[in-house]
Queue: 4 jobs
Job 1
Amino acid sequence: MAASSAASAAVNKLNFSPDFTEVLHVHAKDSTHRLIKGLLVTYKSGKYCDVTLKIGETQKLRAHRVVLASFSRYFEALLGDNWEEGKKDEIEVLGLDEDAVSDLIEFAYSGHVDISKDNVQTLLEAADYLGVEFVKKSCEDFLRNAIDDRTCLGIWQLADLFSLEELNEHAKRYALRHFTGVCEKEEFLCLPYRLLTDLIADEGLCVVIDELIPFEDDREKIVLQAVFRYIEHELHSRKDHFPELLSLVRIPTLSESFLEEVAKYELVQTCCGEEIFERARKVKAGISKGSQSTDIRWASPRKFADYSAIWGRCFAIGGQGQPETLYFTDKDTVEDMNNDVYVKGMKLWIHHWVRGPVVGALKVYYSNNRETKYGYSTNEAEIHEFHLEENEKIVKIDVQAGWVVDQLTFYTNKKDAHGNRRKFGPYGGNGGGFYCETPAGSYGFLAGVAGAHINHQGQWSITQLQFAWKTFVFPEDPLPPKGRCRADDMLEDYYSDEMTLDDEYPDIPVYDGFLFDYYPD
């Protein structure tokens, strides 16, 4: 060093021109990498270490105070001037998983850590305790991607324990949205009571059975049965919570027959549940003397999503042959959100045109036992018919259509022996283009149809076919377009004062919102 200084002194100071003002800003692109690599080498070799960490009964790590203080809030505080413990040559970090602490110390030198299902919990605990925010946030991201029916409640508890607000919200929202599957897992029976009441009381709790949301008087059955299982799992220590949990279940929304049946359960009678069921029956009958606002909420179905009626696209817009001779629609029934009417079966007449088979007529079977035929059938038609099982609804339709409807295939929420959606069809021919329609929103189902009928050279067929879906739109779902019923629009135009009617097309008869077949001579 002395020789170098002497050599430098032997050289006179450079005499730069006063006009020379250039400054060269130098940045070594790999300096950070070289620094981290150098720190890791010194850590592995034990060079220049100035503190020992005792992380277990026998395991110790040598490290550098400056590195520890730079990556951990815990060590930054401990190694400062205010703590005598931090001035010792050996510092104890006990009570945490040894591998997790070791991984975090190495992360301080390398900037790298592996997070897996085997270490995420211990790593999260250690990172939270030592104040290593980057690793803590990385564990949160890992857990968010791991949420499913089996893990969501455990992850919710971890998020609650370590104050991970985003993960807490995400895990709880998943549990609410998938409650039917979640409540059947072992983790549900071990859920802390405070979190259980938070879950059961939430307006967003959603019951789904066979990929559909049941009718209002069936939804709370799943919630009530889940409460029964939770209490019975540790009956002695939990039975005193039974009345409070029952008050969080929307019992008055259940059917009267079900209420009478459940009130006879031994658990209800031995754990002071009879009074609540009696009150539920009075609330249901409108004779309760309780708080009106409380009773209204208790007796109301949960508002977990908006229930909407949506019209799909219009298939087979016509354009050839004679104009449509009738329009048919069940718009009034479909758009009445006070009923749960849906399509529970169909009968199809397939007419054989020169161009191939086409859909000539439909008979729709509705869940309110109504049957309505749309279109005209001939004796030569090929006939197909199907009916749905209990809790089975149409959730997808494949359509082949050009200027008439050539073919229809219906899929339901039920699964076949191979795990595929049960389907009916295809019915009709292979003409036209291929289209697939499913309802927007979530858990939607076919609620009705609309369209028109056409006669082309003595052959009848369906055109302008539209399907109406009832669906649930959750807060996180994109807002679906409502759509319009084309047949209803055409009828309004037909009957408007502004429309000039040809004598060739007299009034089309209408009955109770549905159009009966009409065919001019």
Job 2
Amino acid sequence: MLCFSYPLFSPRIRFPGAIPLAALLLTGCAVGPDFERPVTQADAYTAKPPPAKTASAPVAAGAAQSFARNQELPANWWTLFQSPGLNALMRQALAANPDLEAAKAALRQAQEIAQSQRGALFPALDVNFSPARQKISPAAFGTPNGKNTIFTLYNASASVSYGIDIFGGARRLLEAALANADYQRFEMEAAYLSLTANIVTAAAREAALREQIQATRHIIDIESRQRDVLKSQFELGGASKAALLLQQAVLAQTRATLPELEKQLSQTRTQLAALAGRMPGEPLEASFDLASLHLPETLPLSLPSALTAQRPDIRAAEALLHAASAQIGVATAKMLPRLTLSASYGTESVSFGTLFTPATEVWAVGANVLQPVFHGGQLLHERRAAVAAYDEARARYRSVVLQAFRDVADTLRALEYDAESLSAQADAEATAKASLNMAQDQFKLGAINYPQLLDAQRIYAQTHINLAQAQAARISDTAALFQALGGGWWRRAGNETPEAARGAASNSMEKPAGTISNNSVKSAAVPFRSPARPAPTLSRAEPKQ
């Protein structure tokens, strides 16, 4: 708890007890802990540094990739894939995606709630005008046989009340509201990042599916021609009926895989339409294949120490931790005295025409001090619950940080190993294709039997599909790296750097570091400045329950 003093006595205050009341208000305390940002120590993402360059392959999405350490991420990182169709779809999605619109609306709501909470730091002024027709019984004045009186009473008044925030409960509520606004801001950034990454991943999946469908159709064409050759040989007596039936079965089996691939492609297209804020029946102009997506060859890799400031999910978890810290102060302030000053000035008259004359003037000045004494342990347990909520938020923050570093580490390894896998798949596909061409020629000449040709067909079919999947995996891995590193949201117009954004809420409250334990709250001997108070003079104090 931090205590400070500020002047409240003014020579203009003229009512009995003003000096003792001013003396009582000379000291104000902001109870509860002051938020301390968690510090994460990490020197590297992985135990083994990533290679200077990944493997390469002479196919689409097969370029070698290198990592530019400590390089800033671009805000519009998806433009590195050099796909006009992807860029156009991204613009449509960012303008019409309902989830992103909902996140923006939630942010506006949280910001307005935080602004409304600032009102608790200022006096409340109200004006009132109330004409009332009344009948008074003379029995109320001890004359039961008197005559009833009927009259109209006009009242016009202004009243002001001010809850003195002696122990900082209102400021802690404001601090929590500002932290919740930060949480919604980073939830919006997380929705933005998730949307853009999902679109790139879906585009890569569409490209892979188109390649697999094209490869399957090519294999169907090869197997159809082979069936025709076997049919001619069977009619001439050069092939058995069993060989012809087996080839027809293989052809039918290959054809059966095509509808499933077409279904997956259709589902991917409707997913892209939904991400872009369109109905499934609306046409989607953008279409993707592996040739239209250029793999970025240089990938920015920020320092591990910067990750906690860049990841929106970490920043959102930090904001929740901040709000939980502030709620401890709110719960503590409820256990301490509360002081409210009030005053009213107005006029009352039984005639509207005599309002605002000196004879009808009424006024009142007062103060109210409330000290909770016994609530059955409610306030104590509420404070303990607030401390437990902080401990929960702290553990969840730690979990989010660990998951974030795991995401980056897994993605870096995926980029390395998937590049090697693509290189191997490209070699396997090229070898399988050459083997199939040779087997077809040899089979026509009778140099090999049909089972050998069938094996060559199966190997080529599988390697071609595996190659398309490996190409899509490299594109998806690249998008995953940008997502794992935070997506460069701070480089968009209107956003601050991660460090500046991290300090925005705390700068508005100017809160120093503090520590929390399950049993007690310790505070640091550093200044606390409220938005509505002058600079404090410090002393230490800790409320007792």
Job 3
Amino acid sequence: MRILEVRVLMLLLLAAGMVPNAGAQSALGKTTLSTTKVTGTSVLGGGSHPVYTTITIPYAMPDNDLVEARRNSVSSKPASSATPMALSIPTPQPNKVTNHGANVQFEGLSTVDTANTNGFVTTPPDQGLCAGHGFVLEIINSSLVVFNVAGSKVSVPEAVNAFFDADPTTTFISDPRCYYDRPSQRWFVSVTNVYDSSNNYRSNLFLAVSQTSDPRGGYTLYSIDTTDDGLDGTPSNPGCSTAAPCFGDQPTLGADAFGVYLTTNEFSLFSNTFNGAQIYAISKDALEDGTASSIVHIGDLPLAEGIAYSVQPASSPDLSDEDNSGVEYFLSALDFFGTLDNRIAVWSLGNTRSLNHKTPNVTLMNIVIKSEVYGQPSDAPQKAGPYPFGQSLGEPEETLSSGDDRMQNVVFANGHLWGGLNSIVSDGTNTNVGIAYFDVNPKMSENGLKATVHGQSYVSAEGNSVIYPGIGVTAEGTAAAAFTLTGASYFPSAAYAHLTPSHATSINIVAAGNAPQDDFSGYPEFGGAGVARWGDYSWGVADGKSLWLGTEYIPGGIDATSYFTDFGTFIYNVNLD
């Protein structure tokens, strides 16, 4: 594929903190050697586990308008470099839909678990999933639990706030992720805290690192300040101040052999400030030893005609493809106008072994390559059916939000970088929501980063939509995506497709939805406009030669008039060899 753009940022991290950029590199970014703090320890399942019998007002998780923020990021660019491309909506051949069970499949957490553990409900769930050492850990907004590989709970569902020792009356925790590191047999769990009203509305990322291979054991808790107002070791980013603190929304989690990586999109709590993607890199060894104190924070990342957003770090099934000096790969999309685009960005952070040093010396590069066309998705309809909560309010049935076309989770396996995103597609008659996915071959050399698209394709369903892909890839390169299937023919259902570089196989329904979503977030009485929150992501992760997949669906049987919503999650294991 033709290389459209190459950028390099050499990051020589000085103990003094901010790194001055030189010459032509001055506009490429800003790096701070900041600090992470140990806030305590926690034991998953070690709390008192109260069960609440009454539910307070529900909470919708933060939903900052990333599409509008992307548009605004190009507003200061010359018109010649800030014009949307003339592209056509993709019209892929729709995939056949079948009903196909999995090796192991079981109900995950639901809004009932969130209500019982917190006394309130949240939406959407945000599917976090990781697996290894005979366990499957699931975390959603706002509860977490451990299963064995047969699908039986081996811990009691617990409130996420309780696990991180965060007061739910003063903090706002969201966007959970987890990762199991196979070489070290450690578990990593992350969330963002939008604000702490008891501490001048400062924001942070929480990261929990297990002390043993058992996810039910002890964890070391870390806090990373994301307020970025120049205090607490943070950089002084534009529009971030004590009066208008910033926070890291839509966070992600990845790892390579030497580091753990979190990225966010930086917004201001009280203004329309958007500072784009922020990358945080931390020594994995230090995190596991409970001694991590320094962190590499990289921000101010221009990309093409805008500013980078949702730079997704890769995780790997076994880290066998790692470079000796260490390299972490990332993918991101480039649809700055919320229309259509045919480019993706590949990123590398090189020399990550140096994260173990007092003054790390890492190199950030990116390269923009041509891809298949993708674009801003529409809302997704659902099959008509009874929705007692909405009907009691006199409201019409909701549609589901498919969010936007940011890059979803990324996996590096067998020398290939896999990623996918929601995209508008056409079936020749109507436009629906489909999935565009990419198989990229990145390569680091003395001359820098190179990347080509090895394969790419779509997943789509005629007359219906598939939303929020969560891609899992084995060490041998076998890939599948979990997602929700919804539309005129289907209540929101848990499904997956086997992905190859050239095409996706049939859409396999593992757990058929049994009712429409009936969620407070879409109703005007709760500030909605007819579109309910969904997602915001599914997940896939390798466990040996099999893949664990998880996504949101509507199981039926949950009384939304009592719980304000009726979502569930479904977890399933597939072996595609």
Job 4
Amino acid sequence: MGRKILFITTDQQRYDALGCNGGLVARTPVIDGLAKNGIVFDRAHPQNVVCMPSRSTMLTGQHVSTHGVWMNGVPLSGDAPSIANDLRRAGYRTALIGKAHFEPFIDPFLRFAENRIGSAGLETEMMIGEDGLPAPHRGFEHFALATHGGVGPFHYARWLREKNPTAAAMFFQVLDQQLQVNAAGGGDTNAPQVKHNDIPRELYHTEWVADQTINWLSSLPADADWFCWMSFPDPHHPWDPPKSEIGRVNWHDLDLPDGYIADATERERVLDAKPRHWRMWYEGTFVSNYEAPAKWVPKTLTADNVREVNAMAHIENELIDEAIGRVLASVASRGWGDDVDVLYTTDHGELQGDYGLLFKGPYHTDSLMRLPLLWSPAKSAKVAPARVSAPVGLVSLAATFANIAGLARPDYTESERLPTNDDEARKLGHERVLTEWDSVLFGKIVHARTICRDGWVCTAMLPGTIHDGTEGELYDLASDPLQHNNLWNSSQHTAHRDALLDDMWSSLPTRVLPLRSCDAPV
């Protein structure tokens, strides 16, 4: 019997959402306890700052240029490598419970396996593997799928309809009648995508994901080795937790986040020093990510809107923490407590008021790129707790899962496993972390490439609709942690900028061509 793996992800969660990372609003004692006894990564970045590309990196251990999911709506190839497949072949039982999103959600003809599995209420879908033998979809023998509300072709929506046929309408309506992201406001301040949700807490998707995880783990024999990816849809917008929980965080009492620039003149000065797409989105004239409502103008965002959005997100963070606590208690009750590695992260961050903006997009700053990532190794592994300052990426997760299971690093992965301390980070070569962005949406083309190393973040904007290839961003994280002072055009920093860019271009993998087609907006 080996070490079991509980891989916990949230969706669109900031580094500072957690108490162990300095968060002061949400109470997260369960996650903080894992951090206290484990390894906390203080500079973990995704390889893309939207869902599908980032999640595909987690599963494959590959950068976006290699796995080919270059923007939301581009499905991960059915024959793409999957660490779950490797673990299953090594004898692990495998499950993915909650949000998967390796394939598009908007799929009325059920072209994609995730949607067929959820729509029919199946556990998985069999395919022929590379060895010519039947294998479950992406290596997972059990799926129980959910997304951000009560509609869609997923197990949670089916279950919710059976429990309460009116419950789905209680959630915020994500898409409007034109199948565009809904720009409507709600709550007390008319903040975008906020709603006071009448759904009972026990029917909310956070509770369902935890319940389904407990049920699957309870079905396994005591001597089973298992890999369970428990994937919460929150705190991704819309921000509509159960109304019964609103009292947890009173938005009136919240300070504005450090990244919010209250003075409009100063805010616009900071935005104007960044590449043009920042200010143009702020003005509502250049929307380059489908999940940001096209009809919403960020410039209209008020300080109270920011407070309310933050309150709702932190309510959702608290509910996730409590759900994890229930799952860990169930794991302990099976006698597995000493032999389970728990890894916790998210796919990307959330602007959440920083720079006067919400949501996400081609904005490579800490709001979206600096992620919560922690690893609590099994007690039987006898790994000392540590905080790691070296830059690491989600691209290292697949190799880490293999290492926990006693497997060699898979040939298809593009990064060494996560280190257990800074000394090991140096030995494993964790010097830099890379992030890519490509989007073609509403006739607007944006390309960006970013490197983080040695306490600096450098982003090159490639030629596109409004960029000519000369724009970019350069920040010294030690002196400018909020990334307000763009040094890209500073003559004093030209040599350092160019050295970072040389390192970035030499480190990025060669892009696999031709590009896979974008089959849906999301």
